[in-house]
Amino acid sequence: MTKKIKTALSLLIAAFPALFFSQQIKQMTAGEVAELAVRNHQQLKVSAQNIDIAKQNTNVVKLQKLPTITASTSQFYLGDAVAIDKDFSNSTTIPMPHYGSSYAVQATQLIFKGGLVNKSVEMASLREQLSELDLEKNKQDVKLLVISNYLDVYKTLNQQEVFQNNKKLAQERLKNIQKFYQQGMVTRNEVIRGELAIKNLDQGILTLSNNKKILNYNLNIALGLPPDTEIVPTESIENKESGIGMDYYMSLAHDSNPLLKSAQKNRAIADKNIEIIKTDNMPTIAGFGGYTLQRPITTRNPVLDMYSGGWQTGVSLSYNIDTLYKTKEKVKLGELQKNQADDVITLTEQNIDMGVNAAYTKYQEAIQQADILNDSKRLAEENYKITEAKYLNQLAVQAEMIDAQNQKLQSELDYANAEINVLYQYYNLLKSTGTL
C-alpha cells in the first residue's frame, strides 16, 4: 500500500509541480497524526485547563486545615453619659472622654469535626482524577476524529491514483481509435466517445483534488501545522491484529475505557459525599485565642482615658441539635445518589460491551469485504483486458469497451475505499476499548 502512495505522490507531483514545490510535504503515519493532535488540538488544551482548575480547587480545600485569623479595629466618638433616677425625676450628665478606639486579634483552629476537612480534601482529589479521565476521553475522541480525517486524505490519494491510471489507459485507447478513424475503420462518434470518457475522468480528478485540499487544510488546523503543509499518509493495513478475538478487546475495554473509569470514580465520589454528610452528626471542637485593646475604660467611675488590654485562649465545643433530624434525610439522598452511580456503572459496561461487539464485527466485516472486492477488482481487470483485445481486433464496439472500463474503474475505487475502511474500523475498535 505504501508503494501505491509513492506512485500516487509521483503522479501528483508530475501533474501539479507548482503546488508541491511551494508546500512542505510531510509523510505521516496514523500514530504520528494522533500524537500531534494530542499535543496541539485546541479542544484538548481547553480540557487540560479543567485539570488545572481541579488541582487548584484541591489546594483551596486544603486551606481549611490552616487557622482562621482576624484582626479588627474601630475608632469612635463617645458621647457623655447620663445618669437618671429610678423614678426618672432627676438626671445627671457625666463627662466622658470623647475619643475611643479598640483593637483586636482573634485566631481559631478547627480541632475536630469528624474528619470533615480530610474528607473534603479527598473529595476534591477524586474530582481532580475525574477531570483527568474526562481529558483522556476527549483525547480518544480527538484521535479518532483526526485519524478519520487522515484516512479520508489517504482514500482521496488512492482514488486519484486510480483515476490517473485509468486516464492513461483511456488516452492510449483514444490513440488507437484515432488510428482506426484515420483508416476509415470507425466513425467520428467513436472518437467523440473516447474523448468524453477522458473528460469524465478529468472531472473526477478535479473533484478529488479539491476534496483533498479541504481535508488537508482541516487536518493541518487540527494538528497545529502550517496551513500549506501537504500531508502524505504512509499507514499500512499490514500488522493490524485481526485474529486476537473479541474476548481480548472486551477485557481490554473493561480495564482501560475512560468512560467506565469515570463511572467508577463517580461512585467513589458518592461514597465520599455520604461520609462528609455524616460529619454533621459530630460536634465541632475548636481552639481559639485572642487579644483586645480598648480605650477608654468605662467599667469604673470615674471613667479612665486609658487603654485596657487583655488576652484569652481556650477550647470551644458546639453541636447543632437540628442535625438529629436533618442529617438522616441528607444521608438518604446520598444513598440514592450512590445507587444511581452503581446503575450508571452497569449501564456504562453494557454500552461499552455493545460498542466493542459492533466495532469488532465491523472490523472483521471490513477485512472480508476487502478480500471480496480485491477478487472483484481482479475479475474487472481481466474483463477489461479481454474486451480491449476484442476491441482492437474489431470484435467489440466502443460501448462495450467503455462499459468494461467503467467496471474496472468502479472495482478499483471500491477496493481502494475498502482498504481504507479496514484501517478506520481497526482504529474505531481501539477507540471503543479506550486504548486508541
TrEMBL record:
Indicate where this protein is primarily found.
Answer: membrane
**Keywords for the protein's UniProt record, in alphabetical order:** Cell outer membrane, Coiled coil, Membrane, Signal, Transmembrane, Transmembrane beta strand, Transport
According to its UniProt record, where is this protein located? Cell outer membrane
**Would the keyword Nucleotide-binding be found if you checked this record's keyword annotation?**
no
From the UniProt record, list the coiled-coil ranges.
116-143, 363-419
Gene3D superfamilies to which the protein is assigned, alphabetical:
Outer membrane efflux proteins (OEP) (1.20.1600.10)
Q: Which SUPFAM superfamilies match?
A: Outer membrane efflux proteins (OEP)
User: What residue stretch is flagged as signal peptide?
Assistant: 1-20
Statement: the UniProt record of this protein carries the keyword Flavoprotein: no
State the similarity comment: Belongs to the outer membrane factor (OMF) (TC 1.B.17) family.
The molecule here is called: TolC family protein
Q: Which organism is it from?
A: Chryseobacterium rhizosphaerae
